[in-house]
């Protein structure tokens, strides 16, 4: 089998794993705020979190590419002052994936927290526990299926994303070439055998991840489904 295939698949799974680990604490904090917060800012924030689901990925990728470019203020500051290059780099892909996959982590956590009885939180407060303790040791252990759902769907979504990674990462072997991009480039080059290896691998991984999530959700009563 082509060694480039394994290199691309390793990069694909590394991107998905790093994105999922970064988004986990972010998703818990934002999901908790959206579940119990109030006010106009909550609506504003929720709208922003949902936007990656509505916008074409190329729109988000285009604006991130402009932001990361050293020809513009932010990208110039990152590259010339801090020495950080995000355009056409692995960490640029990570940042783009974190933004693009944000709703897949936040929404299941939010739904899981909302599904819990209010008495659970009130009992913790009555015992003198603060909000941080209550969230970490009372609420989160009761929404493990929702957290698992959030992590798996975020991982699977990142593995399959195309538009954002194409815009900000291009197709650099060993650096930014992930499986979804490789399928496109190999199909364009009429190398259908290799394109099929990538496509079939993604189908198998997606099926296994979704099967695991659905199976666990049925076992646990479906708590936390978006």
Detail the poorly predicted runs.
none
The tally of beta strands, per DSSP, is: 0
CA-based gyration radius? 20 Å
Total of DSSP H or I helical runs spanning 4+ residues: 12
Mean pLDDT: 90
Shape: globular
H/E order of the elements? Answer: HHHHHHHHHHHH
Through-space gap between termini = 39 Å
Question: What percent of residues are in strands?
Answer: under 5%
Helical fraction: over 70%
Give structural notes.
With 226 residues, the protein is mostly helical. Helix content is 77%, strand content 0%. It is built from twelve helices and no strands. The longest helix has 34 residues, at 3-36. 34% of the residues are buried.
Core attributes:
mainly alpha
Question: How is the secondary structure organized here?
Answer:
Layout: H1 3-36, H2 40-54, H3 57-68, H4 73-81, H5 90-100, H6 102-115, H7 118-126, H8 131-139, H9 144-160, H10 163-169, H11 179-188, H12 192-219
Helix pairs in contact: 1-5, 1-6, 1-9, 3-10, 5-10, 6-9, 7-8, 9-12, 11-12
